[in-house]
């Protein structure tokens, strides 16, 4: 309707100019044709940009509920995970360094997750361009520090089992600290090269990260993220798992319990890496290849589901290492015993205070009058 109103108003003005002989009649038809072409092009471009952003879907409430569950469960579990890994570090266990950094990365991401919940709920980013850039930067920092640290854990277990005497220096706590610092530096530099404020925020539509269609810079960044952030760590973890499995099968010194623990730990690392980070990176590449306006509905929902799976990594890390490895189980049990002892001591203190208050009110204070009465009765 807006197109016809504009078109009629312009044609009416041109007719007035023709009637008053301000412009020749031959130019009248040319002007009408030009107006029709321009209005049709403008109308098609506006419809194209509108179709690129899918309308609101009812399943977004499911996404909001799951994100809130990640916040409510992820904060206490990762704080507990942080404390367990700190005790491992104090025991000079190099695995605790990687676990501590994993827990810190999870907590860093959970701090900005309420903003993403609000964006998912209202379908509008209400915090500006700078906040969008910071949240996207922290999101990908969490993704790739977790992937790098999982790779470091797999390499650490590979060297400990396949080459137990040859690479002892690479399995020290100092080496784990330096590798963790290198993982953080690499991730920050990589995100500085691939995350740009112009390619992650749309000021007109108030959209953060989920820009449709993808800008050219974002397409190149998605391919780089798939190769560097997922494919290389997945290949490293897969190689370590394959070598460890073949070595454990040949080694008859290891018992069935030790083999089970090794396979369980590495299998959970592969499952976390492939299940949490694999689908979202595959969807990034599919968006580069298949994204055409109007936006496919299955691609939109699939991308949202895969992004939610990546966020669930915050819950997978504490469960993975506190309960799937023997050192993690022992440390978690020690922490629980310490907390239980502290709780018992506090309960005993409260009981003693209550008993002292009750005894203090029940006892009768001894005064001079009572002593005199007792002395007089004794003499009688």
Automatic annotation (TrEMBL):
Superkingdom of origin: Eukaryota
Places the protein is found: Cell membrane
Protein name (database record): Psychosine receptor-like isoform X1
Residue stretches spanning the membrane: 63-86, 98-119, 131-155, 176-195, 223-242, 262-286, 298-316
Mode of membrane association: Multi-pass membrane protein
Domain G-protein coupled receptors family 1 profile: 77-321
A GO molecular-function annotation: G protein-coupled receptor activity
PANTHER family documented for this protein: G PROTEIN-COUPLED RECEPTOR 65, LYSOPHOSPHATIDIC ACID RECEPTOR 5/SPHINGOSYLPHOSPHORYLCHOLINE RECEPTOR
Pfam families recorded: 7tm_1
Annotated source species: Cyprinus carpio (Common carp)
Keyword terms of this UniProt record: Cell membrane, Disulfide bond, G-protein coupled receptor, Glycoprotein, Membrane, Receptor, Transducer, Transmembrane, Transmembrane helix
């Amino acid at each position: 309707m807006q197109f016809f109103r504009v078109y009629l108003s312009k044609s009416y003005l041109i007719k007035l100019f023709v009637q008053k002989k301000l412009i020749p009649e031959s130019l009248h038809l040319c002007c009408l044709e030009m107006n029709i072409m321009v209005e049709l092009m403008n109308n098609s471009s506006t419809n194209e940009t509108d179709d690129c952003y899918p309308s609101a879907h009812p399943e977004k409430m499911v996404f909001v509920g799951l994100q809130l569950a990640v916040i409510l469960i992820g904060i206490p579990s990762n704080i507990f995970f942080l404390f367990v890994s700190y005790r491992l570090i104090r025991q000079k266990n190099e695995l605790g360094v990687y676990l501590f950094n994993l827990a810190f990365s999870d907590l860093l991401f959970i701090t900005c997750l309420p903003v993403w919940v609000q964006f998912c709920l209202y379908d509008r980013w209400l915090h500006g361009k700078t906040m969008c850039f910071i949240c996207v930067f922290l999101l990908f920092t969490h993704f790739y520090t977790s992937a790098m640290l999982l790779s470091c854990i797999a390499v650490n277990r590979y060297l400990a089992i396949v080459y137990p005497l040859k690479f002892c220096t690479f399995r020290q706590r100092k080496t784990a600290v330096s590798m963790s610092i290198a993982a953080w530096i690499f991730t920050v530099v990589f995100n500085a090269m691939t995350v740009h404020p112009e390619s992650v925020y749309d000021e007109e539509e108030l959209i953060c990260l989920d820009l449709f269609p993808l800008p050219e810079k974002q397409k190149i960044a998605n391919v780089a993220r798939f190769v560097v952030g997922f494919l290389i760590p997945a290949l490293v973890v897969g190689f370590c798992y394959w070598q460890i499995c073949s070595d454990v099968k040949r080694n008859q010194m290891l018992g069935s319990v030790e083999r089970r623990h090794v396979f369980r730990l590495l299998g959970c690392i592969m499952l976390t890496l492939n299940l949490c980070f694999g689908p979202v990176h595959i969807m990034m590449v599919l968006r580069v290849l298949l994204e055409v306006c109007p936006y496919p509905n299955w691609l939109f929902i699939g991308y949202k589901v895969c992004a939610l799976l990546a966020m669930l990594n915050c819950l997978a890390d504490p469960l993975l290492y506190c309960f799937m490895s023997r050192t993690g189980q022992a440390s978690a049990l020690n922490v629980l015993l310490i907390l239980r002892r502290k709780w018992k001591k506090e309960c005993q203190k409260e009981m003693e205070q209550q008993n002292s208050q009750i005894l203090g009110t029940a006892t009768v204070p001894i005064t001079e009058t009572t002593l005199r009465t007792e002395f007089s009765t004794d003499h009688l």
